[in-house]
Write a structure and sequence with these properties.
The longest helix is centred in the first third of the chain and has 8 residues. The radius of gyration is 14 Å and the shape is globular. It has 1 helix and 8 strands. The chain has one domain.
């Protein structure tokens, strides 16, 4: 089962100063419906990861990562990742490869996405204080 969330370990680690999202390398890995990802996911795992042409285990590096702020909210901005190939995916894990592959967020696409020799774009919500995937309100 895949449950969309910021992972519990990430929320604790951000307060402990483990992550520096302005300089760390963030990655996104794709997973099939057999994956078990959710609030208790602590690190990247290859268990249940998507397999196929055009997709490499470990996923892709997120590009143009910037930390933004707005009164009462801190959020992270990055480009939408794209793969071209043939594979099936149901969700994704964003993780910090600079910090021992620690988990950050789980995405659930709702249904299996069948990619058949075409581009697959993970269309993330707008990177703004109201909708960004990685945001913390205070």
């Amino acid at each position: 089962m895949i449950t969309a969330c910021l992972t519990t370990s990430f929320l604790q680690e951000i307060l402990q100063g483990v992550h520096d999202l302005s300089v760390d390398t963030l990655k996104i890995a794709l997973y099939g419906s057999s994956a078990s990802l959710g609030p208790s996911t602590t690190v990247y795992t290859s268990s249940g990861e998507s397999v196929g042409t055009g997709y490499i285990a470990g996923g892709a590096t997120l590009s143009n990562v910037t930390v933004q702020s707005y009164p009462g909210v801190g959020y992270v901005d990055f480009d939408n990742p794209t793969w071209t190939g043939t594979f099936v995916t149901r969700g994704a894990l964003i993780y910090n490869s600079s910090k021992s592959n620690r988990s950050i967020a789980v995405l659930d696409f709702g249904i299996d996405q069948v990619v058949n020799a075409r581009p697959f774009l993970v269309q993330l919500p707008p990177n703004n204080p109201q909708a960004s995937i990685i945001r913390i309100q205070f």
